[in-house]
């Protein structure tokens, strides 16, 4: 049995804590906040409850797997449902589209509303599913820095299919070639934002992302997204993991290129293995100042961040679903603003999520809890107070225009997050939601690995390291790190 210290209780930290406890290790998790979950937090305001971070839950089997590994029935801890509807789309010219859990229904809707061939849409959804399996076996479930990843039978299958993985084109160009209506292109381009990237730059390989929603499903956990870290916390505690909440780590100690322990604001601890679930940049710049940092990896462009308005509304809107998108008319300009000019367009695409459509207790009777997210650049010292004020006005106008209702008259509770606040609450560099952006075809190789020979016995999990951000990939990072640790 080894002693393992983990910095941070985000999804990566929780996943690794559970896997390590199941492997028989003594595990302690240090968390700066008074709660576990990192970006999976919640906000309560005037009778409304909001999930502060993620709103879309995909690949729930990756969470279930942790309970099964721990010898428990996941349904005794948390439950979820597959949503019958995926998303409602709104364009300024009045075009409306609803996509559904059944891929054939989505294909039929895109055919009737956007004039595509239903067969082409169905074939696209099938192909991205096949590509997903090739890529996930190679890139998502393994370390890119283990020789076995590149020499096994799965790698050979990957090499044989390299031509269909879209490494040499951008997501936007491949969608443009595939579909005739620019609105269909925009709809599938949108999925680049699921890892905080730009569809006009990110490789077409990432066209696999909608597979998760359209072929596997968009899920909703009972009690909201917050129930995921809470259930994992309960499981980890039952497995013997010790949580030191409100105990911020100030240093990862090393000796002879080997991690040896942690220093916190409350004491010093020795461990056989350490794992950092903190973003790589503050991990190196604040916790590992004595070690040389991999500058090239740390200096990669960041993924987008977000401005999120949490609005309590005093009425409900039948034309809205759980997930809704109000598209900008200038999509390319929106991404240019975010990734080149580091600013925000006046007409940004708006994502509006309403958990109270499913979880009635999230809003007072008759009302709705609106979570409104806009993609924005990571924090580089922009005047966020001015940006938030301007964006609030623009969002209010766009939603009022599209819904034909003066929204402001129905707003009864209000809060917000911006990149500065996200950074403060989760230590993520610049408040980036998904670590580095994946805006070039080498991005997967420019993510920090889950283990580096330069500092032995130190592992890395979470959205800023391989394989990337988002709940499922953070859980995969924990799986890879646990495997690497067991191979030591
Ligand atoms: P994080 O959540 O980043 O947590 C890291 C933890 O480490 C924090 O709790 C922090 O306090 C702690 N920590 C850091 N430094 C220290 C230290 N020195 N000492 C002690 N503790 C420390 N993903 C999806 O799958 N679906 C979505 O719909 C989605 N939407 C999102 C919307 C928003 C607004 C945000 C913010 C994120 C969203 N994401 C979404 C992304 C997803 O939330 C993240 O990729 C994922 O939760 C990151 O997990 P992590 O393991 O990297 O840890």
Describe the model.
The chain is of the alpha/beta class and 488 residues long. It folds into 3 domains: 3-32 and 247-300 and 439-486, 3-Layer(bba) Sandwich (FAD/NAD(P)-binding domain), CATH 3.50.50; 41-101 and 304-433, Guanine Nucleotide Dissociation Inhibitor, domain 2 (2-Layer Sandwich), CATH 3.30.519.10; 107-216, Orthogonal Bundle (Guanine Nucleotide Dissociation Inhibitor, domain 1). It has 16 helices and 19 strands. The strands form 5 sheets. It has a 7-stranded mixed β-sheet with strand order 7-6-15-16-17-14-18. The protein has a 5-stranded parallel β-sheet with strand order 9-2-1-13-19, with helices on one face. Strands 10-11-12 form a 3-stranded antiparallel β-sheet. A hairpin with a 3-residue loop joins strand 11 (258-264) and strand 12 (268-270). The longest helix is centred in the first third of the chain and has 23 residues, at 118-140. It binds flavin-adenine dinucleotide. Flavin-adenine dinucleotide binds next to helix 1, strand 2, strand 14, helix 15 and helix 16.
């Amino acid at each position: 049995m080894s002693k393992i210290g983990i910095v941070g209780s985000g999804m990566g930290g929780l996943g690794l804590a559970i896997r390590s406890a199941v492997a028989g290790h003594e595990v302690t998790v240090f968390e700066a906040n008074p709660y576990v979950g990192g970006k999976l937090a919640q906000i309560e305001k005037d009778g409304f409850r909001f999930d502060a971070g993620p709103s879309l839950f995909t690949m729930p089997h990756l969470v279930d797997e942790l309970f099964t590994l721990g010898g428990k029935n996941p349904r005794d801890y948390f439950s979820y449902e597959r949503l019958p509807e995926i998303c409602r789309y709104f364009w300024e010219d009045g075009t409306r589209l609803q996509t559904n859990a059944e891929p054939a229904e989505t294909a039929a809707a895109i055919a009737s509303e956007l004039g595509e061939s239903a067969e082409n849409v169905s074939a696209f959804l099938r192909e991205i599913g096949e590509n997903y399996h090739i890529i996930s076996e190679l890139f998502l479930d393994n370390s890119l820095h283990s020789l076995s990843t590149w020499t096994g039978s799965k790698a050979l299958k990957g090499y044989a299919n390299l031509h269909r993985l879209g490494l040499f084109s951008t997501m936007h160009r491949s969608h443009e070639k595939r579909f005739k209506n620019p609105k269909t292109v925009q709809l599938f381009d949108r999925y680049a934002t699921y890892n905080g990237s730009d569809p006009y730059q990110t490789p077409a390989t990432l066209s696999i992302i909608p597979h998760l929603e359209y072929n596997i499903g968009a899920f909703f956990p009972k009690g909201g997204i917050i129930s995921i870290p809470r259930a994992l916390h309960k499981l980890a505690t039952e497995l013997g993991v010790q949580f030191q909440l409100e105990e911020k780590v100030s240093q990862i100690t090393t000796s002879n290129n080997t991690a040896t322990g942690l220093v916190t604001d409350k004491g010093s601890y020795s461990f056989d293995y350490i794992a950092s679930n903190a973003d790589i940049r503050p991990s190196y710049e604040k916790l590992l100042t004595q070690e040389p940092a991999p500058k090239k990896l740390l200096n990669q462009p960041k993924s987008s961040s977000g401005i999120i308005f949490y609005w309590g509304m005093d009425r409900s809107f039948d034309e809205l679903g759980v997930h809704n998108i109000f598209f900008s008319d200038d999509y390319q300009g929106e991404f240019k603003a975010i990734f080149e000019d580091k600013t925000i367009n006046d007409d940004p695409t708006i994502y509006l999520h309403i958990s109270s459509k499913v979880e009635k207790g999230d809003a007072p009777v008759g009302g709705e809890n609106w979570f409104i997210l806009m993609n924005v650049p990571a924090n580089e010292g922009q005047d966020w107070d001015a940006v938030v004020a301007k964006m609030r006005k623009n969002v209010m106008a766009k939603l009022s225009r599209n819904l034909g209702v003066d929204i402001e008259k129905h707003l009864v509770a209000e809060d917000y997050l911006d990149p500065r606040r996200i950074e403060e609450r989760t230590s993520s560099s610049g408040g980036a939601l998904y670590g580095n952006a994946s805006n070039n075809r080498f991005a997967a190789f420019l993510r920090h690995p889950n283990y580096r020979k330069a500092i032995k016995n130190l592992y890395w999990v979470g959205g800023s390291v391989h394989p990337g951000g988002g709940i499922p990939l953070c859980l995969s990072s924990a799986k890879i790190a646990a495997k690497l640790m067991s191979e030591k």
